[in-house]
Write a structure and sequence with these properties.
The chain has about 800 residues and is of the alpha+beta class. A hairpin with a 2-residue loop joins strand 10 (about 520-525) and strand 11 (about 525-530). It starts with 11 loop residues before the first helix and ends with a strand.
Length: about 800
């Protein structure tokens, strides 16, 4: 896909057109790797500047990568707790190390802000941009080298009261800054979640083949993304407002209460120059020096009297926030507040964790119901529609998945780490989802494999429905099967004939689908089954087909087609639902010894796959002389007295081991064809088939068996000819045909082809003595007899078929 650069801002029409092309390309996977961002607009990327565009794409991949998100989360977590850890667990001597780490974090946050602004234009000056900016600036109070000079704080200052006010304001301000950093953590957790959801899921199918599915763990839908972002913003703003403004309603925020340290110092001032002054001073020291907040320094100057008292802890060893300085006219006292600061830091850690939990819980719970009731069903619908668009034949499988468990039930199975009791509820979204799947399943049933391209094309391109598309040339095997004596059966069964036909159709469709076939036409008493080759299976789609022998499918598909029809012959003589018609009184009265019989024809060649009809009614099918040939072969089975005829083109693509299960019946010339047609059959005498259990598989079970069989064949775990050797049904069909019979028939066919008809007569008579009612042998004997067992003078090994 190529995009043309335009100078200036793009027009709305051009944006719409390019956006549509981009969306279609993204659906087809052509530019998924190039534009991985959901919100990235094509007009945000300078198309004319390939180097800049490439840099932006690479930068986006780095910023949205799993590793980057994890590293960023760890750094942010440290930034949340580092200052509290510094105060509660370390001494002042370690401050410089923490300041250094905080400086590095500030630099990293700043770089992240810049890079995101460059890579994501929808990020600039948006909600999260300002939060990230505040988060970055909130690191500054943790850097004492910068923050203390900015506030003009001097640890050697004697202005104790100002220090108290400063400490109080800083503590209150840090509450909001920490919450801003928490917001950043929540966003990073969300980025990790979105990244995981956008990753390509590698799914191992039951057949062992690994496929990539971009929609199994889908990217968020637009409505889901918008709803989640709006809810998250509101939760964040609400928490920020609460944490920021609640302290403003506390008296401690405005007034520093006077405590015993200040009252005691006032008493000392009052006793200056009076008797008992030393007792008051010593009592003040004794009372406070062993307190939880001990007095560590006292000094006063009164006239010529200078006095200083200290303890083991020097004031310079404490941080500004760990000292409470009390001053009066002539005196100064310093109190050790490490107990308070340590407790405050520990409580801050707990508060930070609590706010994280509240934010997470609020973000999840606020969006949970909306996601369960609306977003998840919509995303599930979109995912399934895309799946159906890529392969409409998946619609049936989607329908079976919906029957087992609704999307709402899946969404409600688990919340966070808690199992939740699910209650099945049919909401409108669930009803809509089920309806879409049912419509898709009906489309797949109505159009079949031949119509999958019509469905997929119309679902992907949007706009008006265009059912009549240009056909495509494909290579396939065409199997035509017909119910014998159908006119008489219909007249006798009347309304029940629909049940009769559908019971046979179920058997035919189930067996052929399991063996890689696809039902195409249901024409009353006849069915067209197609086994289609892929482009990689065929070297040349012509007459004849040239298959790619390096393709596994090309080596086994014809074998499976033959096996399908042989199994159908066995099952219509075995299934109780079909056998019951042998005892139907009306059918027996009209056709004594009635049994359901079918004729089959198999041919291989090319055809045009597409839609036939108009906007009022279409049928998805295959058109070519090769499709018609399968029908003529089925009709010709009546001449040779066999249930199944194979063309030479089909016989040639069978594996050599399966060709041994076939015999050459004749070589004929058919009107409308300029080359002889070789006819083969795979003998099937149902006399030895014993009644058994009916075929009872639903579509889901059949799909699993088909997938498992395909996997084994593709991996070489089994060979297609082994399916013939291991089948009890195939053995029973072949049991009546002995080695001696085949040997006599083979020699007779060689003599017949070479023109030695007297010799052929002898071998055919020997074959008939072994199997008196063999249709092909009797047919050829009648041909020999018509010519007095002498080959025509112009005999070339084939004859014109007399289609009376």
């Amino acid at each position: 896909m190529y995009l043309t650069a335009h100078q200036g801002s793009p027009s709305s029409d051009m944006q719409s057109a390019v956006s549509q092309d981009l969306e279609n390309a993204m659906k087809s996977g052509e530019i998924f790797e190039t534009f991985p961002l959901d919100n990235q607009s094509i007009f945000d990327i300078p198309i004319s500047s390939s180097s800049k565009s490439s840099f932006t794409v690479i930068l986006n991949r780095i910023l949205d990568s799993h590793v980057y998100s994890i590293v960023m989360s760890l750094i942010t977590i440290w930034a949340l707790f580092s200052d509290d850890i510094r105060v509660s667990a370390c001494t002042k001597s370690a401050d410089n190390y923490f300041y250094g780490v905080s400086t590095a974090i500030f630099s990293y946050f700043s770089l992240d802000l810049i890079l995101n602004s460059i890579a994501k234009k929808d990020y600039r000056f948006a909600f999260y941009f300002w939060l990230d900016l505040l988060s970055t600036l909130s690191v500054l109070p943790d850097i004492g080298w910068i923050w203390n000079p900015m506030l003009g704080i001097d640890s050697s200052s004697d202005d104790g009261q100002s220090k108290v006010k400063y400490t109080k304001s800083v503590n209150q301000g840090n509450q909001a800054s920490r919450i801003v950093r928490i917001v950043r953590l929540i966003r990073l957790i969300r980025i990790v979640k979105l990244y995981k959801n956008a990753r390509i899921a590698m799914i191992e199918e039951e057949d062992g083949t690994v496929h990539t599915e971009t929609d199994m763990i889908p990217r968020e839908s637009r409505v889901g993304k918008k709803l989640s972002e709006l809810t998250m913003k509101r939760v964040i703003i609400l928490v920020l407002i609460l944490i920021t403004f609640i302290p403003l309603f506390s008296l401690d925020f405005y007034i520093t209460p006077k405590r015993s340290w200040g009252f005691g110092l006032d008493t000392i001032e009052d006793f200056f120059g009076q008797d008992g002054f030393e007792n008051v001073r010593d009592e003040y020291i004794d009372y406070h020096k062993d307190d939880l907040r001990p007095l560590i320094y006292l000094t006063y100057t009164y006239g010529t009297d200078n006095y200083t008292w200290t303890c083991d802890t020097h004031p310079d060893d404490l941080r500004d926030t760990e000292k409470y300085v009390v001053t009066d006219t002539h005196s100064l006292a310093i109190i050790d507040l490490r107990f308070d600061t340590h407790l405050d830091s520990e409580l801050n850690i707990c508060k930070t964790i609590f706010v994280c939990i509240v934010l997470l819980f609020g973000a999840f719970t606020f969006t949970k119901d909306a996601e369960d009731l609306v977003v998840f069903p919509i995303e599930s619908m979109i995912r399934k529609i895309k799946k159906i668009a890529r392969n409409p034949l998946n619609a049936g499988m989607q329908s079976s998945e919906n029957r087992s468990e609704s999307s709402l039930d899946k969404a409600k199975k688990k919340f966070l780490c808690f199992n939740r009791k699910t209650v099945k509820a049919e909401y409108e979204t669930t009803l809509l989802e089920n309806t879409i799947i049912k419509i898709g399943a009906l489309l797949a049933l109505g159009f079949g494999e031949a119509g999958s391209k019509i469905i997929a094309t119309n679902m992907e391109k949007g706009g008006d429905v265009d059912p009549v598309l240009q056909g495509s040339k494909v290579a396939a095997i065409y199997g035509f099967c017909d119910i014998r004596n159908f006119t008489d059966t219909t007249e006798e069964l009347q309304e029940s004939v629909m049940v009769f036909v559908n019971e046979i159709a179920y058997l035919v469709h189930t067996v052929t689908h399991q063996l890689m076939g696809a039902a195409n036409k249901n024409i009353g008493d006849a069915f067209l089954i197609v086994w289609k080759f892929g482009e990689e299976d065929v070297i040349e789609i012509n007459d004849p087909l040239v298959l790619n022998k390096n393709s596994k499918k090309a080596t086994y598909l014809a074998d499976l087609a033959l096996l399908s029809f042989l199994k159908i012959i066995a099952k219509i003589n075995k299934d109780p639902r079909i056998l019951k018609y042998r005892t139907h009184s009306k059918l027996i009265k009209r056709m004594p010894n009635y049994a359901v019989k079918m004729g089959f024809g198999l041919h291989a060649g090319w055809s045009i796959e597409g839609a036939i009809g108009s906007e009022f009614k279409i049928d998805a099918s295959y058109l070519s002389p090769h499709v018609n040939m399968s029908g003529r072969l089925e009709e010709t089975t009546k001449i040779y007295g066999v249930p199944l005829l194979l063309s030479g083109a089909f016989f040639d693509i069978l594996s050599s081991r399966v060709q041994e299960y076939c015999r050459h019946l004749d070589t004929i010339m058919i009107k409308g064809h300029n080359s002889p047609l070789r006819l083969y059959t795979s003998d099937a005498d149902p006399t030895n088939i014993t009644p058994g259990d009916g075929l009872d598989k639903n579509k889901e079970q059949t799909n699993r068996l088909r997938k498992a069989l395909k996997g084994k064949l593709e991996r070489g775990q089994i060979e297609s000819w082994e399916l013939f050797e291991d089948s009890r049904e195939i053995y029973s069909l072949k049991e009546a045909f002995t080695v001696d019979f085949y040997e006599n028939y083979r020699k007779g066919m060689i003599a017949y082809t070479e023109g030695s008809w007297q010799e052929a007569k002898s071998y055919f008579e020997s074959a008939l003595r072994i199997k008196p009612n063999d249709g092909p042998t009797m047919t050829l004997m009648s041909v020999l007899k018509e010519n007095n067992f002498e080959a025509p003078t112009d005999w070339e090994g084939y004859r014109e078929l007399n289609e009376k």
